Amino acid sequence: METVEEILNIQIDGYIVTNFNGFKEISEALNGVTVNNKKEIVWYDQEGNKKFVIPVGKQRLKGDNLLMYVRFRGDSEGDFGRINRQQEVIKSVIQEVLNPKNIFKMQQIVKAVQNNTKTNINFGEFLNLAWQIKDVDNIEIEPLTLKTKSQKSNGIWYEIMDTEDLKRISNILNGIPIEDTDGSENHYTE
Length: 190
What we know:
- The chain is an alpha+beta fold and 190 residues long.
- It has two domains: 2-142, LCP protein (Aminopeptidase, 3-Layer(aba) Sandwich), CATH 3.40.630; 144-190, no CATH class.
- The protein has helices spanning 2-8, 20-29, 63-71, 78-97, 106-116, 123-132, 163-173; strands spanning 16-18, 33-37, 41-44, 50-54, 57-61, 117-119, 148-153, 156-161, 178-179, 185-186.
- A two-stranded antiparallel ribbon has the order 1-6.
- The longest helix is centred in the middle third of the chain and has 20 residues, at 78-97.
- The chain starts with a helix and ends with a strand.
């Protein structure tokens, strides 16, 4: 949290971290979450046999299949594709948790969340946040990806930040107007 605050010159009010097992348990408590897979995902075991296949299209995933969906990075998109899938699943989980039809599953959901998450948000703040985002279908999440350049050093690949893009993203997150390429200003709010 300190590193992100320092790099982007922002203040982070709170965080929620879940482990991969959390995706699995929470999705099982919800009886699955909806994803829209853009390309077939095939996961092989150590012997080279197909272990999981997730076809293209809109579908409900839970348990190990969802875990494979959010962990997969064995294609040309690598980590960036995995990040996009994780963001999609987080939004889908929020939609499911806040859906009134899941009220009777709340005890199982809360248990799965408690067993697999860490946060600095107290329960009252969490409930207030949940109330504010109850209409999650109308919330627009705009992911920002910092431009980087891949560089290999001593056999290890690193992503080197583009300093101009870092400044642009910091300005967006801080609500500072930036000039568009056509000379007009875009204003961003928190």
